[in-house]
């Protein structure tokens, strides 16, 4: 499914900027009175959100608006999107695939931003003593992954690249902690996983990469908001963007120091966190037509594999899209 020709960059920038531009038209008191809280869904693997939570930077930025911050932790992106779907959170940060599955399930959200491509931040790994040396050797093997996560698409594309189909393997759907345990006891043959879990199993267990995402996937990370919340509280979304940008710039300029701050919060070694941060080029930006088109390709692929019940239009989950 292709984006319509009318979806020009000028039109997109007008749409994506609408939420932020509208902030100036809303009195501060109205935001606070309407909803004095921003509920942020985060994963412990989301290093920037973990840093923000620890530093209290978002709370300080939202204080003039009278808006409090509540942090709600989830084990992975699909579970986080379930939380958004049932109204448990207002914003979240996930990989490429979770928003697609959530949109298929009827979740009402909008893409409010993305971080640059991070293809090295996800990979297919095997134990260090595994006889497997190529993705092509995975036929009939058990491969663990978190269903509906960014690595779901990575696995599909890697299999295609090496002449296999998704039906050629035995997918084992496990969240990261359970997959790590299965990996270490030899219950699975390979594991599709993202950072910092990837860096951790490489550094701590000597896991060996069969392939990462380079040349196969982009692995964009997306910031999402519940549609109604984004429309009602553009000033809050603006403040979130500003804080993400400021914290992201600090991390990029101070990788080692950032890793030292984040490591104890994630329960990981500093070297593990630093490696993970090096593979994530943080830098929140509004979506562009090109990024939306890439998401559409992923949605179309999942539909063709019958992993989605119906075709999707990514345009329907963008700011300014008609609903109802």
From TrEMBL:
Similarity comment text for this entry: Belongs to the bacterial solute-binding protein SsuA/TauA family.
The Solute-binding protein family 3/N-terminal domain, residue ranges: 37-254
Keyword Signal tagged: yes
Protein name per the record: Sulfonate ABC transporter substrate-binding protein
Keywords on record: Signal
InterPro entries: ABC_SsuA_sub-bd, Solute-binding_3/MltF_N, TAT_signal
Any one Pfam family match given in the protein's UniProt record, by short name: NMT1_2
Record organism: Rubrivivax gelatinosus (Rhodocyclus gelatinosus)
CDD domains (alphabetical): PBP2_SsuA (cd13557)
